[in-house]
Description:
Strand content: 15-25%
Number of strands: 9
Oligomer: single chain
Amino acid sequence: MKERLVDGAYAAGWAGLRHLPEPVARGLFNTIADVAWRKQGKGVLRLEANLARVHPDADRARLRELSRAGMRSYLRYWMESFRLPTWSLERIAGAMTCKGIEQLNEAMAAGRGAVLALPHMGNWDLAGAWIASAGGYPFTTVAERLKPESLFDRFVAYREGLGMEVLALTGADLSVIGTLARRLRDGKLVCLVGDRDLSEAGIQVDFFGEPTRMPAGPAALALRTGAALFPVTLWYDGPHMRAEIHPEVVPSGEGDRREQSAAMTQAMADVWAEGIREHSVDWHMLQKLWLADLTPRGAGK
């Protein structure tokens, strides 16, 4: 019953909210964000705990200010995502500007293929729609399986409608990894969200001075295929969104493949940390991230 209700809620969002006038939709989602922020539920408290790592000198009042803006940014992501299928290509093209796109153009023109790896910042669906249309690069990505299955199907259909090839990820799915590698060897683009490990088999990195794990996939795929690896950051700037494709993370050639992958993942984490520090209200991390906060599977049973 709960799964059907969740699926129905998302269906209503896509069917109804996309047709509201823009100011009404924005006001509605700001109100939802403010109500959630005032209630200080689990997600808001986790967001504030995460922001405390980003801004260790912030007092309680500052963290509350940041979390309120963060919740508004997070609900803006959902509001835009519900409405994005109705946007024209012209509107998508004008909704985002991208610094560093010439680096991606060079890698793709050389036939190398490329991996764009980004954290949960801004609106990654809008960024994907932009890169697939205005940027001219349809791409392949992965999505965690959701329950109910009908909800997952909605997400896949939505993203494929924006120009993405979406592969369903279940744990360390070798068939998915193989497909991504083939796309890269064919000179195609792969985009992956990479700041939170869902498998408990990721690479340990230092992030804002504390250990966490991040997925090995982006760096491992670049090493395996010779594709260019670019970390990306996203943030809102008034009514628009901005993206920056940072310089390529290049393998050092030192150590074995696992050690090189770890070094490349740490390099990406360092780039993301700088972007998150500067635009922390647009980092939508409402889940536990650092190892100190995570409970190992099986603990407490």
